[in-house]
Design a protein that fits this description.
The strands form 3 sheets. Strands 2, 3, 5, 6, 8 and 10 form a 6-stranded antiparallel beta sheet that branches. The protein starts with a helix and ends with a helix. It is of the alpha/beta class and 352 residues long. It is built from 10 helices and 15 strands. It has helices at residues 4-7, 51-57, 59-64, 99-102, 186-189, 200-208, 225-233, 250-267, 284-299, 331-348, and strands at 22-26, 33-35, 72-77, 81-87, 105-111, 114-121, 130-136, 143-148, 157-163, 168-170, 180-184, 212-216, 238-242, 273-276, 305-308. Residues 7-11 have low confidence and may be disordered. The longest helix is centred in the last third of the chain and has 18 residues, at 250-267. The protein is globular and about 65 Å long. The protein has 2 domains: 18-170, Sandwich (Jelly Rolls), CATH 2.60.120; 180-348, Rossmann fold.
């Protein structure tokens, strides 16, 4: 592949990394394959939904849409190292979530149907315009890789640096040609995983070798009917409906939850839907609202629905170790969520 920096010097990627033989590639170009994002144009390159649609949902969703939660890039190379150069217009710094999860990238090696964690491209504490990082590999051989994008930050550009003489080709393919789609709150978005691959969707994506789309919007998933239409248009392999936590109150959930489900079901009569309730203690009334939607679907003859009780996510003697603040999961909490929600998702995945 020709290096664009050699063709047009104005497009050369400058780097401070001490790598004499590095060549940088734009991940928006082949053979790199992007997942979990909808590229929306030259100015906004990475977003989870088309910008014009996000504007119609709410101002908050429009903003959070640019957070790259669930975004991935896949490729194969025999380079002895992988570097990244990321550009953005600001760095998020939350007090209760590691920077590696908020605005870091992590690297996995894809082997067959499994992906194994290799390293994290760790950002500094003051990287308002972006950062660079490199991971050294063990020797040179052709390997497939996945890099996960940040959970709580926007990305303006991402360049992958490889040895100048390295081979570069397409990455591993998922076992299914359609994604699992998740809609929900800040927990769905990935708060507060220590790195992007440890969101529960990332865990399940690796476990089942399945693509996914993360439509978690921190504090802003309100069950808008237009979101049901949009998600139906994605033709999910399985749809996980989990916005209970963002409903302003029980009354809002009563007014929107079953309406949302019925609208989606009208457009996608055969798509399995997993309904989950919040893990917050004391929210039994909200749980009852979600369960009623599920029960009504069953009574209507719908065999492609499942209910996951959020109160069962964090149980046992280590239950109080699962969150960072009594609400948002840490990595252990996300593993527990992957186990409970994953069990329901797995039942609906087609046989491979």
């Amino acid at each position: 592949m020709p290096n664009i920096g050699e063709i047009d010097k104005n497009l050369k990627v400058e780097t401070s990394l001490k790598l004499e033989d590095v060549r940088f590639y734009d991940v928006c170009s082949a053979p790199f394959a992007l997942y979990g994002m909808a590229q929306t144009g030259k100015n906004i390159r990475f977003a989870r939904m088309p910008e014009a649609f996000a504007e119609t949902v709410s101002k908050n969703v429009q903003t959070l849409n640019l957070h790259t939660a669930g975004g991935r890039v896949r490729f194969s190379t025999d380079s002895g190292y992988i570097a990244i150069k990321v550009l953005w217009s600001g760095q998020n710094r939350m007090s209760h979530m590691p920077l590696t999860g908020q605005c870091g990238f992590d690297l996995y090696i894809d082997e067959g149907s499994r992906s194994k964690y290799k390293a994290t491209f760790t950002p500094g504490s003051n990287c308002d315009e972006g950062y660079e990082s490199v991971v050294l590999l063990n020797g040179r051989e052709m390997r497939a890789f996945t890099i996960n994008f940040p959970l709580y930050n926007g990305v303006d550009a991402l360049y992958i640096g490889l040895q100048a003489d390295a081979q570069l080709s397409g990455g591993a393919e998922y076992a299914y040609d359609r994604p699992v789609v998740y809609y929900g709150s800040s927990i769905t978005q990935g708060g507060c995983a220590s790195r992007p691959g440890n969101s529960y969707q990332g865990i399940l994506s690796r476990q089942f070798n399945v693509d996914h789309v993360n439509l978690g919007f921190s504090g802003s998933a309100r069950g808008e009917i237009c979101m049901a239409d949009y998600i139906a248009g994605l033709d999910p392999l399985v749809f996980v409906l989990d916005y209970d936590h963002n409903a302003p109150n029980e009354e809002h959930l009563v007014k929107t939850h079953e309406v949302f489900f019925r609208r989606f079901r009208e457009l996608r009569p055969d798509t399995p839907v997993v309904m989950a309730s919040s893990a917050m203690p004391g929210w039994e009334n909200r749980r009852a609202v979600v369960f009623k939607t599920y029960e009504n679907a069953l009574r209507g003859g719908d065999k492609k629905v499942a209910f996951v009780d959020g109160q069962a996510h964090f149980t046992g003697i280590y239950a109080d170790c699962a969150t960072v603040d009594g609400c948002h999961p840490n990595d252990y909490g996300f593993v527990r969520m992957a186990q409970s929600i994953g069990g329901a998702v797995e039942k609906f995945l087609p046989a491979r």
